[in-house]
Amino acid sequence: MSKHNSHQRACGKRVAAGVYAETRLSDQGQPIETFILDPPVPVDPAALGLAAVGPQLIEINDVWHVFDIVGRKFYPYVADMVEEVRRKGASRRLPRTLDFSKLSPESCLVLIHAKAVISDFEQYPQPPAVMCPRFKHLSQLEEVCAGLWWYDIPQDAIQTDEGGHNYRAIPGGVTYRAYPRPEGVKVGYHHGIFMRLPVTNLTVIAGRNAQEEKQAEGAYQAASQSNLPIFMDEE
Q1: Which of 7, 105, 171, 199 sits between 20 and 30 A of 231, alpha carbons compared?
Q2: What backbone torsions phi and psi does residue 34 show, to the nearest 5 degrees?
Q3: Residue 122 φ then ψ, to 5°
């Protein structure tokens, strides 16, 4: 993923003394499409022990990964999160009570969204009109394609530029090409894993007063139990 430096996100600013799992961008990084799961993998959050708010550690083949449900309040559409990560990398807040010692360089950030799996995908525009991000779906769909996420946005959530091109703008300054959901579609959804990102590091947000500074120190000590690089950042 190419480098783009900005801390402002659709979900707001980061919290002082908070610990965040990050996927940082690099000039030598891979494109975001590399990390998209296509088709998305259906999951049952309750069966995985996941809550609507707050990530959980899940072990797969002796490696612990951070599973996190992306909230629809700030990211109502899957493409919102994908495009933000494309430009800014990923940053997901972790509870300070997490067992950080389980995190390693092999750990991934596994992102889930309630609208990742579109059940009525046949009612949407089909490839090749729809660009499959992994170039896996090139003709009439027999399963949901991740490319449909950019076509699953209501007309009233899309704007049109002077050239007549549709785009969506989300808080934090991210805009991207988007297409209105076909009229009359009675869409059904299922929770699904839509991206799997490497956790490049942990970051603790510095405090802005004496009390927060003390909390940030404690958070830094807790996060230092991991086997990941850890940084202290101002925001």
Answers
A1: 171
A2: -60, -30
A3: -65, -20
Place of tokens 């550690």: 57
The residue type found at 230 is I
Instruction: List, for residues 105-148, the tens digit of each pLDDT value.
Output: 999 999 999 999 999 999 999 999 999 999 999 999 999 999 99
Domain ranges of the chain: 19-233
Segment 57-113, tens digit of pLDDT: 999 999 999 999 999 999 999 999 999 999 999 999 999 899 999 999 999 999 999
Helix ranges (DSSP H) in the chain: 78-88, 210-223
The two beta strands, 108-118 and 63-69, are parallel
The sheet with strand 56-60 has its strands ordered as 36-42, 189-198, 108-118, 63-69, 56-60
Q: Name the residue type at position 26.
A: S
CA dist., res. 198 & res. 176, Å (int): 24
What's the length of the chain? Answer: 235
Give the pair of three-digit tokens for residue 225.
């139990």
Decide: helix, strand or coil at residue 205. Answer: strand
- Rounded Cα distance between 235 and 232, Å, is 9
Handedness of CA 185, 191, 193, 195 (dihedral sign): positive
